[in-house]
Specification:
CATH superfamily: Immunoglobulins
Number of domains: 1
Radius of gyration: 19 Å
Largest sheet: 6 strands, mixed
Structural class: alpha+beta
CATH class: Mainly Beta
Helix content: 10-25%
Number of strands: 9
CATH topology: Immunoglobulin-like
CATH architecture: Sandwich
Number of helices: 1
Order of helices and strands: HEEEEEEEEE
């Protein structure tokens, strides 16, 4: 086999290894970055729909797919008791809502009762930063 042809598999293998490493490496978060709820407050009693406003300190907002340093987009965890894996993109379902457009608030329809809310910032690929930028988990009570 000519020497040139033998190099191609090695080059492809090296490229595949680099891509795999990039897929697993999480985006760094700036020191001191934090997510928080502007509203509602922890312990609040509210009616549905609930206006939920997201806040950030030390990091900015950018839509999903936009890879700009020191930015991310919000994911709202609703009634999640165990955090999803931070080694993969966050799932999208009824309990993990994505705000990939860079939104910083939502009118949230919630059934009456007690609910927990928590924010997790995701990078351009919906992966939590390293270290993760999360809010405290808050509890609210929804009345009719």
């Amino acid at each position: 086999m000519p020497k040139q042809l033998r190099l191609i598999p090695l080059t492809l293998a090296a490229a595949a290894g680099l891509l795999a490493a990039q897929e697993t490496a999480r985006t760094p978060a700036p020191a001191g970055a934090a997510a928080y709820f502007q509203s509602p407050a922890d312990g609040a009693t509210v009616t549905s729909p609930v206006n939920v406003r997201f806040g950030l300190r030390g990091i900015g907002v950018a839509p999903a797919g936009v890879n700009t340093a020191n930015t991310g987009h919000h994911h709202l965890l609703i009634d999640v008791t165990q955090m999803p894996s931070f080694d993969a993109p966050l799932p999208a379902n009824d309990n993990v809502r994505h705000f990939g457009g860079g939104q910083t608030e939502v009118e949230l329809e919630l059934a009456p009762g007690q609910h927990t809310l928590q924010l997790v910032l995701g990078d351009a690929l919906h992966r939590p930063h390293e270290p993760p930028v999360t809010s405290d988990r808050i509890t609210i009570t929804v009345t009719n």
